[in-house]
């Protein structure tokens, strides 16, 4: 077995035939070597790193010396020596340090030894130049000799960068090289325009040429870094880019005749970056070459940086233009570079498209052969698995079409089922979106198997039929140059027949299941399914606390409909009610026929108020639908909510029935909630009077006054406000009754006044004012003294300017103030003969404006809170003609 003897500190390694270490010391740093197999080394790249080994004492001594020398310029001012005179002492120290690190890197990396030796020489030359610069600073002579001597260091830096780049870019993909060149061209253009061109006019060709050498080294470093792979190699590359950039910056100051202490500091930065690069260039088994960037790094390196490089040229031109420096020369110079960048970018994209196409072609050619050898076995096995896994039609179609597509080696496939309006697309596979045009012009197949050739493609269509029932057809498209063979068509025919049997079985199962849970007359859910669903929802409410509401409906006067119009008409009425109601409920709701003329609605996640409003919407839609010519068909409803009314299923049903019968006794064509039903054993004169009042409300002309909808909406608002203000159950029940009957006194107002489209005269307004007193009198005679008081004063204002008694403040009953706010808000947001309804936002603003003078502030605040919490979904009932709008959806 082969072994690798490696150093866990510096990464130096050599192969060995056994685990025995003949020379246990590392040749680079003197540390103890470890013997590992190649597999162990590869796994170690994913393991946690070893605890860092403390380097030998000589490295610590050098580091201490380095720290002391760098700190020396900081203390020189204390002894009277100017720091500016010794600015080049920093690069002297750092270049000596960097030179030593470069020598160590050369020992660790035999493959890049020459480049690191050249960088060590570069550091030596810059160190000598720094000594000369310090000497000239003390002698007060020109520092140019140091700069000229530093030119040799720049040449050495360029030579080293070229050597390192030659090692890094071998085998690099073309698009990575272009990405690097895009950024390098930006650096070259900016540096040439802002430094090199002015430098030739300030310092001459020699010093500017030194800067150009540094610039070339920087460009080479950028290209090599952006093109290379491996996280460790890239970190070394960026350190070398920093070194070249710092060196170029220092020599740029020289070229622009701005040399000074900053030049020395930049040389020092360059040396320090070289030292970082040398320390980082350590062979490591976990540093895998050839791994593309991923995630955010990929987005930055392959998308953001190239895009910024291209857009930087227009940005530079804009900056020059704003500064008044954009002349014809600048336009030509930056325009040329911008054009080159665009050519490179578009060429890169074209290359990627071609390369990707070649890769897809090669992959397809390799996979085709494998597919041909296994297609029949996979197709038969896959279809058998599909048929035994499920009896749902949609999964069978999706999975079986995939099997057929694989068996046919088709470019695209589709499955259509026969429907009332013709073939319906149910599933596709392959490139159907691109190729469907070649099959779309064909009529539905009449024969079991049809073959067509269109647009260079062979189109095969096979009919799906089982047990004498035609189900649909399968369409398979394939290149005409590779036509279907007879044996393949026979196999596909067998598979399609098996698929047809599976689909027919699924349909038979679904039909029997539907028959078990559906009412045969209306197609709605039947009683058994409905109450099983109700049982589950009540159990879920008990566990999770979410509300569920139950509404039960009964057709008013259904016996008379059967007696006068016949049982066939009665059946039509029941079917029509089912259609109307199903169009108004959510997909999660369940509407069922639970008796002869009785229906029920299950509303999960629905509270009592919302359940009442949904029931009212269904009732209103049925009354307006015109189900039976010459007769108005209405229903009454009762609503109960779990857990508010009860936590037991049987009790919930009983409470809903009680609310339904209460609604039937009190006028019909209305809905009631269980918590508002007063169970009164005395059904004498008082109850008959109340029932008469409800009947009277139902006779008011709906088509002109919309009184019924208005009163029901006001009652819903009033109930919500009463509950929000903490009224007890008995007061809320009475408040609802008063709100429903608050406008009953309008029976004495002429229809012409109520439907007048323009402003009222004083006399007409005085007639309108009579309705509150008349309504109170009617309720008082019906045995409802509390409700009569509230109806009489429901137009009194808080400031005393209302009618009929001009009461003010707390003298107005609280319930009357609640009805006043609810009545005003509903009236403002509803269409009237003389104006359209306001938006809710405008109505809210009006309530706020009149709060404290006309309306009770705390009642207004409670209404606004309910609106913000979306608890007043009765707003969706304002337009009763819009039967397609789903309440609460």
Q: Major beta sheet, specifics?
A: 5 strands, antiparallel
Kindly report how far apart the N and C termini lie.
Answer: 71 Å
Let me know the number of strands: 13
Mean pLDDT: 78
Unreliable runs = 45-83, 286-291, 873-889
CA radius of gyration: 45 Å
Helix/strand-derived class?
alpha+beta
Helix content: 55-70%
Number of helices: 30
Shape: extended
Strand ordering within the main sheet: 5-4-8-7-6
What does this 3D model show about the protein?
This protein has 889 residues and is an alpha+beta fold. The protein has 30 helices and 13 strands. A 5-stranded antiparallel beta sheet has the order 5-4-8-7-6. Strands 10-11-9-12-13 form a 5-stranded mixed beta sheet, with helices on both faces. Strands 2-1-3 form a 3-stranded antiparallel beta sheet.
How is the secondary structure organized here?
Blueprint (H helix, E strand, L loop, with lengths): L2 E5 L5 E4 L16 E4 L1 H7 L12 H19 L13 H20 L4 H27 L4 H25 L5 H29 L1 H24 L3 H25 L5 H20 L14 H28 L5 H62 L3 H16 L3 E8 L2 E9 L1 H4 L1 H4 L8 E6 L2 E10 L2 E11 L6 H32 L9 H18 L3 E8 L2 H8 L1 H16 L7 E4 L4 E7 L3 H17 L10 E8 L6 H17 L5 E3 L11 H15 L2 H4 L1 H18 L4 H12 L10 H4 L7 H20 L3 H8 L21 H15 L11 H11 L6 H12 L21
Parallel strand pairs: 12-13
Antiparallel strand pairs: 1-2, 1-3, 4-5, 4-8, 6-7, 7-8, 9-11, 9-12, 10-11
Helix pairs in contact: 2-3, 3-4, 3-9, 4-5, 4-9, 5-7, 5-8, 6-7, 6-10, 6-11, 7-8, 8-9, 10-11, 11-12, 11-15, 12-15, 17-18, 19-23, 23-24, 23-28, 23-30, 24-27, 26-27, 27-28
């Amino acid at each position: 077995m082969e072994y690798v003897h490696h150093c866990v500190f510096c990464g130096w390694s050599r192969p060995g035939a056994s685990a025995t270490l003949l020379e246990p010391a590392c040749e680079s740093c003197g540390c103890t070597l470890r013997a590992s197999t190649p597999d162990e080394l590869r796994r170690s790249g994913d393991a946690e790193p070893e605890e860092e080994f403390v380097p030998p004492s000589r490295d610590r001594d050098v580091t201490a010396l380095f720290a002391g020398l760098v700190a020396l310029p900081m203390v020189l001012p204390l002894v009277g020596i100017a720091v500016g005179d010794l600015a080049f002492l920093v690069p002297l120290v750092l270049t000596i340090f960097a030179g030593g690190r470069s020598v160590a890197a050369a020992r660790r990396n035999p493959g890049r030894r020459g480049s690191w030796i050249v960088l060590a020489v570069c550091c030596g030359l810059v160190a000598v130049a720094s000594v000369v610069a310090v000497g000239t600073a003390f002698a007060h002579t020109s520092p140019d000799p140091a700069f000229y001597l530093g030119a040799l260091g720049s040449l050495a830096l360029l030579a080293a960068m070229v050597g390192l780049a030659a090692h890094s870019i071998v085998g690099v993909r073309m698009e990575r090289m272009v990405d690097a060149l895009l950024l390098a061209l930006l650096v070259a253009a900016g540096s040439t325009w802002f430094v090199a061109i002015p430098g030739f006019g300030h310092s001459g060709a020699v010093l500017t040429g030194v800067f150009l050498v540094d610039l070339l080294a920087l460009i080479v470093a950028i290209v090599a870094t952006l093109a290379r792979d491996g996280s460790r190699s890239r970190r070394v590359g960026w350190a070398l880019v920093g070194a070249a950039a710092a060196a170029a910056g220092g020599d740029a100051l020289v070229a622009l005749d701005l040399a000074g202490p900053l030049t020395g500091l930049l040389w020092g930065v360059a040396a320090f970056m070289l030292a970082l690069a040398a320390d980082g260039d350590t062979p490591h088994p976990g540093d895998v070459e050839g791994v593309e960037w991923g995630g955010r790094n990929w987005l930055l390196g392959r998308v953001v940086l190239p895009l910024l490089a291209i857009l930087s040229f227009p940005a530079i031109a804009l900056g020059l233009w704003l500064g008044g420096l954009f002349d014809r020369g600048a336009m030509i110079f930056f325009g040329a570079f911008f054009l080159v960048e665009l050519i490179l970018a578009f060429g890169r994209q074209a290359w990627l498209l071609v390369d990707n196409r070649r890769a897809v072609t090669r992959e397809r050619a390799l996979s085709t052969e494998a597919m041909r050898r296994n297609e029949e076995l996979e197709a038969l096995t896959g279809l058998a698995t599909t048929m035994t896994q499920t009896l749902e039609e949609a999964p069978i179609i999706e999975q079986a079409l995939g099997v057929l597509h694989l068996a046919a080696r088709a470019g695209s496939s589709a499955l259509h089922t026969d429907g009332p309006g013709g073939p319906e697309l149910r599933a596709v596979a392959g490139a159907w979106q691109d190729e469907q045009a070649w099959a779309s012009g064909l009529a539905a197949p009449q024969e079991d198997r049809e073959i067509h050739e269109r647009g260079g493609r062979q189109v095969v269509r096979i009919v799906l039929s089982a047990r004498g029932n035609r189900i649909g057809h399968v369409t398979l498209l394939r290149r005409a140059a590779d036509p279907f063979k007879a044996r393949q068509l026979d196999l596909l025919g067998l598979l399609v027949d098996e698929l047809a049997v599976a689909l027919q079985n699924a349909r038979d199962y679904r039909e029997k299941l539907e028959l078990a849970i559906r009412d045969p007359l209306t197609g709605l859910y039947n009683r058994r399914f409905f109450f099983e669903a109700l049982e589950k929802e009540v159990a879920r409410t008990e566990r999770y606390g979410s509300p569920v509401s139950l509404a039960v409906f009964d057709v008013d006067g259904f016996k008379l409909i059967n007696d006068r119009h016949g049982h066939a008409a009665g059946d039509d009425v029941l079917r029509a009610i089912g259609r109307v109601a199903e169009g108004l409920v959510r997909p999660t709701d369940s509407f069922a026929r639970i008796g002869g003329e009785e229906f029920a609605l299950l509303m999960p996640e629905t509270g009592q108020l919302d359940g009442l409003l949904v029931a009212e919407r269904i009732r209103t839609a049925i009354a307006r639908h015109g189900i039976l010519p010459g007769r108005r068909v209405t229903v009454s409803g009762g609503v109960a909510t779990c857990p508010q009314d009860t936590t037991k299923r049987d009790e919930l049903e009983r409470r809903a029935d009680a609310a339904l019968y209460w609604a039937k006794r009190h006028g019909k064509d209305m809905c009631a909630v269980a918590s508002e039903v007063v169970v009164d054993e005395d059904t004498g004169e008082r109850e008959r009077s109340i029932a008469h009042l409800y009947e009277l409300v139902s006779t008011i002309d709906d088509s002109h006054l919309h009184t019924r909808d208005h009163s029901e909406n006001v009652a819903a608002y009033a109930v919500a406000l009463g509950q929000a203000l903490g009224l007890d159950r008995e007061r809320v029940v009475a408040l609802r009754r008063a709100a429903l009957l608050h406008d009953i006194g309008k029976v004495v107002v002429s229809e012409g006044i109520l439907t007048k489209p323009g402003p009222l005269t004083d006399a007409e307004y005085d007639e309108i004012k009579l309705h509150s007193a008349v309504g109170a009198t009617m309720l008082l005679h019906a045995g409802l003294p509390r409700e009569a008081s509230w109806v009489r004063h429901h137009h009194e204002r808080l400031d005393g300017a209302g009618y009929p008694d001009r009461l003010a403040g707390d003298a107005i009953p609280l319930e009357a103030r609640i009805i006043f706010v609810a009545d005003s808000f509903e009236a403002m947001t509803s269409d009237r003969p003389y104006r359209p309804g306001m938006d809710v936002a405008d109505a809210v603003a009006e309530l706020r404006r009149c709060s404290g003078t006309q309306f009770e502030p705390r009642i207004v605040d409670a209404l606004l809170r309910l609106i913000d919490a979306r608890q007043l979904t009765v707003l969706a009932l304002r337009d009763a003609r819009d039967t397609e709008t789903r309440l609460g959806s």
